[in-house]
Design goal:
InterPro entries: P-loop_NTPase, Rab, Sigma_54_int_dom_ATP-bd_1, Small_GTP-bd, Small_GTPase. Keywords: GTP-binding, Membrane, Nucleotide-binding, Protein transport, Transport. It is found in: Endomembrane system. GO terms for molecular function: GTP binding; GTPase activity. With 219 residues, the chain is α/β, with parallel strands linked by helices. A hairpin with a 2-residue loop joins strand 2 and strand 3. The N and C termini lie far apart (37 Å). The relative contact order is 0.22.
Length: 219
């Protein structure tokens, strides 16, 4: 009796958080990546929002759950619960806003405080199309990232510069980190689901809003 071969939905599943000060362009980055959409009329994220997209990395299907988090202090208690289970974190700052760059240190401390698995971090400078208004040089940001042992890239959601590259490069980093964790046998590390779920239709980019951290918890 012949059997029907199992068709996996994805090779890797990663939960990625995007954090940073309010107004640095986190939502614009996510919308450009997930839906190839850009607007000048974004409103501040309330709580958290997420988008799902599956990409191809070296012939592997990588499913990304990307969470856009509010940057305001009053939402910190909501956002903190979404650090749990994150496989990677993107920290954003606005290259034209010195204060947002200074606060990167605090955001990295948040990751260390709430993420027990020590996930990879990617530092992203936003609004690279505003070169004449920049207050943080590329060299400054690069040196800071090197001091923290993390990657750095500059993006523009308006011109779509380096948006796709950011997520594709970071996904490769997460794959490498995931494989390393599995090799070392760390049970608390990043998971790499391979054929562990019943195959369903490919999830297309979609989103929802989460309030009070109740109904939107995905891992």
């Amino acid at each position: 009796m012949s059997t029907i071969p199992f068709e996996k939905e994805y090779d890797y599943l990663f939960k990625i958080l995007i954090i940073g000060d309010s107004g640095v362009g986190k939502t614009a980055v996510l919308q450009r990546f997930a839906n190839d959409y850009y607007s000048t009329d974004y409103v501040a994220t309330i709580g958290v929002d997420f988008q799902i997209r599956t990409i191809d990395i070296d012939s592997k299907d990588v499913k990304l759950q990307v969470w856009d988090t509010a940057g305001q202090d009053r939402f910190k208690c909501v956002v903190s619960s979404f650090y749990r289970g994150a496989h990677g974190v993107i920290v954003c700052f606005d290259i034209t806003d010195l204060e947002s760059f200074r606060n990167v240190e605090e955001w990295i401390s948040e990751i260390q405080r709430y993420c027990s698995t020590n996930p990879p971090i990617y530092l992203v400078g936003t609004k690279s199309d505003l070169q004449t208004k920049r207050t943080i040089s590329y060299q400054q940001a690069t040196q800071y990232a090197q001091s923290k042992g993390i990657q750095y890239i500059e993006t523009s959601s308006k011109t779509n510069d380096n948006i796709q590259e950011t997520f594709f490069r970071f996904s490769r980093t997460l794959i490498e980190h995931s494989d390393k964790v599995l090799t070392t046998g760390n049970p608390n590390g990043t998971l790499k689901p391979l054929g562990g779920l019943q195959a369903t239709r490919r999830v297309q980019p979609s989103g929802t809003s989460c309030f009070n951290g109740n109904s939107c918890s995905l891992v």
